Predict the structure.
Amino acid sequence: MGKVLAVVSNGYVDDSNDYMTGWWAEELFEPILELEKEGHVVGIASPDGGKPVVDPKSLEKENDPEGTYKTLYESGIVDKTLPIVDVKASEFDAVYIVGGHGPMFDLAHHHDLHAVLNIIHLHGGIIAAISHGVAPLLFTKMTDGSGLLDGLKVTGYPTSKEPEEVKQLLPFDLEQELSRIADYSAEEDAETHVVWGSPQILTARSPNSSKRFGEELAQALNRKEEQEEAKFFD
């Protein structure tokens, strides 16, 4: 059984432009469902703790036709997230960062989150992110000063899919920044797209990739457990 930390944005509001965003429901809940199906345990953290702001669009019928994510959200499982500063990173086998535009604002440059990513990576754990949740990985520096994603194959939400009215409100262009330091792959024609940049780095393009992203992460944790058991019995 693996222990996984899911990280979500607390949300962002721009009153002058009547703009509010947060974390994307499908990108949190689909991976949780896949991980729990395989017996893994998921804890949830956010910059400030408490109940983080979900992007309301992610719970609309267009993006949640069966109401699955709305039901999970209303169940209260995201009402009491742990502040990132209180996370004991060494206890986790993996971390995944949930998208929505929120992470572009409050997670991308969050030093406590960067420290958590470093510790989990140094302990051999998996660092995973989906869609705009890849933003914090862009700015995470390792102990030797190199970037976590330097030169690796990665994906994330493509510029061409960003709503025109939102582009000018974002602090940076995710695809552009990823392409600057890593081998960015959009594969926009594919129904889903996930990329292993290394055995420890997993990224996914968009909400459509959420289920596959969760499956990949769960299977990687299963393999890790099997390898550890094999070593124990050798």
